[in-house]
Amino acid sequence: MQNQATEKLSPFKTPTQEQSELINDAKDFIYAHLHDATPAVFVITGDAGTGKSVVLSQLFYQIQQATHDNTSDMANTSNYFMVNHPELLKVYRHIAGELPGLLKKNFQRPTSLINQMNKHHETFDVGIIDESHLLLSQPDHYNNYYGHNQLLSLLKLCHVLVIVFDAHQVLRLKTYWTQDRLKKLLAPYTQHWVHLNHQFRMQADDSLISWINHFTGDRILLPLQKSFRHHYDFRIFSDAEEMRQAIVSQNKRFGLARIVSTTGYPSTLDGGQHFITEGRFKLPWDQYNYTSTPWAEIPQTINEVGSIYTCQGFDLNYVGLILGPVVKLSSDGQKVEIDTSKITDVESFKHRTDMADPQEILNAKIQLNLNAINVLMKRGVKGLYLFAHDPALRTRLYSEYQIINH
């Protein structure tokens, strides 16, 4: 039986009409610019859960099938699917191993492909990039990338790129993108932009999606509403251990229920265990996953706390989110604040030489944390449970939650 991540991204999953039209538009764009002298870029935008990865998976499968058709414009072309997220790459390679016409070697991390092409003085025809907001926008010698921008490096190697971009899922300064930055970089190239709107992941009322978007956008705390629980299991907890027990219960019923957290707790990449403690609650952060199975689909990870790096791009049935010490209620009680002094994910916020303005760096840190919260809040298909470390925020949310449930 297919796991849930593989099933979601399967090329045989029936697309919606909007998705089918988008796939056809992307194919037409590829065919039209396959032999242009300068690269062309097809950009797909949309918030988390709008089906962007589904579109890319089916698009790549279709063009790879066409490479074996001698009557097709794609005949004998060389094409690659790229993703910087190691957990998501495992899913795509698993799919490739089970389907005719798809090869695992055609699914690569961008750095690996760039270095491979440059070493052998090769180019390719079409590149499809999932989560292009994770592309490096500066050198990263630790990951063997010595260029200045991965997107520019790839444009020098191919004829057409199809990329998915969501500025709200940018999580690190070394992959710092905004839509304005992307448009400026792509200005010299032929391009076409399309936007996906419909939220597919969360079986939630639009009012809850709006509440999340304000929480992580302008940071205004809208009132909780009874409609949040229409067809969706939304809960606020005053005790993290009670939330953990509820997630364990849902995991036994439905599977793929996990605890996740924002930054703000001890976290060092030293191979050891680092715990998140909130009263009676105590669990370790997720460990590096050396297996070919995505973190959320390993049964034992019910006893770990997931991070943004293990959960981004994946569906969970239920997510229990701990809003850590970085997330606070403003003094007037109306907004969410991000306390950047409490950030413990130091890898995400390493200094950039091209960002000298202290205010720009501070704004970027705040925005990246809000992006992470947005991504984590939108992981759950069936339910979202919340616990806040900050006493004032916890009291505000829990008090409102009790009111709408009586």
UniProtKB/TrEMBL annotation:
Residues 40-390 form the Schlafen group 3-like DNA/RNA helicase domain. SUPFAM superfamilies: P-loop containing nucleoside triphosphate hydrolases. InterPro entries: P-loop_NTPase, SLFN_3-like_DNA/RNA_helicase. Pfam families: SLFN-g3_helicase. This is Schlafen group 3-like DNA/RNA helicase domain-containing protein. It comes from Secundilactobacillus silagincola.
